[in-house]
């Protein structure tokens, strides 16, 4: 095994910015992306001329999206790389930005994501290998089946699963960047029509448009630019894994998350009990329960009970999806993973307002994507 991020020079987040996640509009992707990038530059209080490279996560825009957008900030000739990795595109863009800074290749790097909705064009359908499932099981059907299986296996009621949607809508109501900004009751979350199986609309994330941007930098750059270290959390670990063949009875989503998360813990020298805040891939309510268990927050089958006790509320033992998560914040795909880093940074700075998790010092960001891929980052506030 090679070096980990912690073995290299420190990487810190110095600037964050978002364009609100929203329903499809006439707003161009250039306007969305520039809004987030300018906000991140303003947050870091640096000009674009200090940025040495850029990674842009997208899934639906098509080829060559980066420069037609970023040239409006200045045609500085920096390398720009467009990143596609399904739902983990933004997370992967951030991972690449961190690697450039940690390795010493660059000192200041922009990672961002921007997308507008479109019909996904999945490469596996062109692989020449016949899929017996085909288009019969779409993502919401897959997770509806997992919901049914989880409820049957652990004796959990649908109302308990749906409480994830109640909690996250409550968090999203306090997030000015969220697509859904209305707190919902349990009855509202359970109200039909069902999208698939027992999953209702408010138990599924909205897929709209938006943008998110994060700037990472080395300690040398932070000192040179006069940036406050206290507002610049360190990226302790960055781990990306892909699906393998699993022999256990568990589903691959959770198993892949378990492996990736525990590798991130090991590389950072921390454990699940150290976490204060988590932003995870909760495209469907059942995912929060499955992934919280896989991350070691609780034992298998205890996820619903943990939510019911308030352990994952803001102010609880570990706030999960304080932003509102994908369920309320939204899932514009390309920006989602970068937006998670922005939320963690805000939490670790103590700048999240009514969403603030008290005394947050360690945060985890987690995204999965078809392929299947999982990306996990750990961020820490340092004195």
Structure description:
- By secondary structure, the protein is an alpha/beta fold.
- The protein has two domains: 5-118 and 207-231, Thiolase/Chalcone synthase (Peroxisomal Thiolase, Chain A, domain 1, 3-Layer(aba) Sandwich); 136-203 and 235-380, 3-Layer(aba) Sandwich (Peroxisomal Thiolase, Chain A, domain 1), CATH 3.40.47.
- Helix content is 34%, strand content 19%.
- The protein has helices spanning 29-44, 66-70, 89-103, 139-154, 158-172, 186-190, 219-225, 252-268, 285-294, 303-309, 325-328, 336-349, and strands at 12-22, 53-57, 80-83, 108-115, 194-196, 199-200, 209-217, 234-242, 277-279, 319-320, 362-369, 373-380.
- The strands form three sheets. Strands 1-7-4-2-3 form a five-stranded mixed β-sheet.
- It is globular.
- The two termini are 31 Å apart.
Give the helix/strand layout.
Elements: E1 12-22, H1 29-44, E2 53-57, H2 66-70, E3 80-83, H3 89-103, E4 108-115, H4 139-154, H5 158-172, H6 186-190, E5 194-196, E6 199-200, E7 209-217, H7 219-225, E8 234-242, H8 252-268, E9 277-279, H9 285-294, H10 303-309, E10 319-320, H11 325-328, H12 336-349, E11 362-369, E12 373-380
Parallel strand pairs: 2-3, 2-4, 9-10, 9-11
Antiparallel strand pairs: 1-7, 4-7, 5-6, 8-12, 11-12
């Amino acid at each position: 095994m090679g070096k980990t991020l912690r073995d290299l020079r420190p990487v810190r987040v110095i600037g964050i910015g978002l364009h609100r996640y929203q329903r499809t509009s006439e707003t161009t992707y250039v306007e969305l992306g520039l809004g987030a990038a300018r906000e991140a530059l303003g947050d870091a209080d640096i000009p674009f001329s200090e940025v040495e490279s850029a990674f842009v996560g997208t899934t639906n825009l098509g080829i060559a999206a980066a420069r037609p957008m970023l040239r409006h900030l200045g045609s500085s000739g920096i390398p720009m790389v467009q990143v596609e990795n399904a739902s983990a595109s933004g997370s992967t863009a951030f991972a690449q930005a961190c690697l450039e800074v940690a390795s010493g290749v660059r000192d200041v790097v922009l990672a961002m994501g921007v997308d507008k909705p479109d019909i996904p064009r999945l490469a596996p359908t062109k692989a020449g290998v016949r899929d017996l499932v085909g288009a019969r099981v779409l993502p919401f059907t897959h997770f509806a089946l997992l919901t049914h299986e989880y409820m049957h296996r652990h004796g959990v009621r649908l109302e308990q699963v749906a409480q994830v949607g109640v909690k996250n809508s409550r968090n999203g109501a306090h997030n000015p960047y969220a697509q859904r900004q209305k707190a919902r009751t349990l009855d509202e979350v359970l109200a039909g029509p069902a999208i698939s199986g027992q999953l209702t609309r408010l138990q599924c994330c909205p897929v709209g448009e938006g943008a998110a941007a994060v700037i990472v930098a080395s300690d040398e750059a932070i000192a040179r630019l006069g940036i406050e270290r206290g507002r610049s959390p360190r990226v302790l670990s960055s781990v990306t894994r892909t699906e393998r063949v699993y022999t256990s009875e568990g589903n691959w989503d959770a198993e892949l998350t378990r492996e990736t998360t525990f590798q991130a813990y090991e590389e950072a020298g921390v454990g699940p009990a150290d976490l204060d805040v988590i932003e995870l891939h909760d495209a469907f309510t059942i995912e929060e329960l499955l992934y919280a268990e896989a991350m070691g927050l609780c034992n298998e089958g205890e996820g619903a009970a943990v939510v019911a006790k308030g352990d994952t509320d803001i102010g609880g033992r570990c706030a999960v999806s304080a932003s509102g998560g994908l369920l309320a914040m939204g899932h514009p795909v390309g920006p989602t993973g970068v937006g998670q880093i922005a939320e963690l940074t805000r939490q670790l700075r103590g700048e999240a307002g009514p969403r603030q998790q008290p005394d947050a010092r360690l945060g985890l960001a987690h995204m999965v994507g078809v392929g299947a891929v999982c990306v996990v980052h750990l961020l820490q506030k340092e004195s």
